[in-house]
Design a protein that fits this description.
It catalyses: thymidine + phosphate = 2-deoxy-alpha-D-ribose 1-phosphate + thymine. This is thymidine phosphorylase. One of its GO terms (cellular component) is cytosol. Keywords: Glycosyltransferase, Transferase. The chain is α/β, with parallel strands linked by helices and 446 residues long. It has three domains: 47 residues, Up-down Bundle (Transferase, Pyrimidine Nucleoside Phosphorylase, Chain A, domain 3), CATH 1.20.970; 258 residues, Nucleoside phosphorylase/phosphoribosyltransferase catalytic domain (Pyrimidine Nucleoside Phosphorylase, Chain A, domain 2), CATH 3.40.1030; 89 residues, Alpha-Beta Complex (Aldehyde Oxidoreductase, domain 3), CATH 3.90.1170.30. It contains 17 helices and twelve strands. The strands form four sheets. Strands 1-4-5-12 form a four-stranded mixed sheet, with helices on both faces. Strand 4, helix 10 and strand 5 form a beta-alpha-beta unit. Helix 5 packs parallel to helix 11. The protein starts with 5 loop residues before the first helix and ends with a strand. The relative contact order is 0.14.
Amino acid sequence: MSVFLPAQIIRAKRNGESLSEAGIRRFVEGIGAGEVSEAQIGAFTMACFLNGMAPEETAALTLAMRDSGEVIDWTGAGIDPRTIIDKHSSGGTGDEKVSLILAPLVAACGIHMPMISARGLGHTGGEVDLMEAIPGASIAPSTQMFRQAVMDAGVAIIGPTTKLAPADAAIYYVRDVTATVESIPLITASILSKKLASGVSGLVMSVNYGSGAFMPTYADADELAGSLISVARLAGLPMVAPIVEMDEVMGDAIGSRLQLREAIDFLAGRRQEPRMRALVMDISAEILAMAGLAASTEEAAAMLEKRLAQGSALERFSRMVAALGGPTDLVENAGSYFPPAPFVSPLPSPTSGFVRKVDAYAIGLAMVELGAGRKIASDALDHDVGLTGIVHVGDVVEKGEPLCILHCRCEAAFATAAEAISAAILIGRHRPERRPVVTGRLSTSD
């Protein structure tokens, strides 16, 4: 048996050579066995960042990371494997609540969605932060509890666990402190390894671009979507990647519990912001088609509308919360679990006109300063603060009408956030053209 020397793998990638599947797998196994140091992981990720990885290398890394821990087996669960579909997003300002709306909606149509999410960092949020804001809900349940929740409710949204793709957590920790997070191959492997470990039969992932997203331009999003699709195809995972414009805030709210209220209101039919509704319905239709539950987008749309009207999507949300240890009456008594922030006040518009721009990045940073987001990964979130009722591009506003409602700890925090948000919203005399939310699409079936 040959001696394993991590430096040989690092040297080969440093020199721009292609790595073998066996070499990549042995390196990942070495991480789990303690044979690879953090310094060596950092050197490896920097070499990948600088020299890139071919799709075959990325696929090998993805599968090795998947196999570094448990892979959930849904055999015997009484579930049609074609219906085990996951949804993911590359992130954006206010985007995290989309999953909390979409997942119970498609579950009401017969989908089973085991969703392993992540915490938010910087101006973008994470679904797990919203789940953590629910009293009693477990974001790190046992594999059995996670599996049972999906069987009982059709959906479970949790955070990364030590059991599923643990090598990804070790590698991501080093990437975060060595300026290699932005590597497209490493992003691809990180996302897909966790999805494959959850035992899904398909994936629909929105790849977002614009000021509110991780990818600034359509070209950047297209590159990431192309990498994901190529590797998913090699890994045998059916996947669709809608490319989503996110120059403005998605939906009406930012902040953990404020977005939970927004998700409940959407599922209850009380308030459905148009761009977010369009995104939810588009991705949901893709999921139903992928599982074979709808023969056309028209059929999928009709099924989704029916579940919303019946209230079964809201009921699935409630069942998911309870299955993960949260309150059984959250939907009926959200106010008792989500107390208001100490200082809530509207931010008045300084002028009348049409909303021409809403800089989602600048607003996201203002929310980080308020406590609704993180500057570093170890920061604790203030689940009660944020904003609601944010205006959108094309809206008409009169002077003095609210641009949004700010939920803050104190008046001083309100003043700071108000100044930043006012500067981020441009109001003009002419109505701008409303742009579609989904502007492209890639698929493994193409």
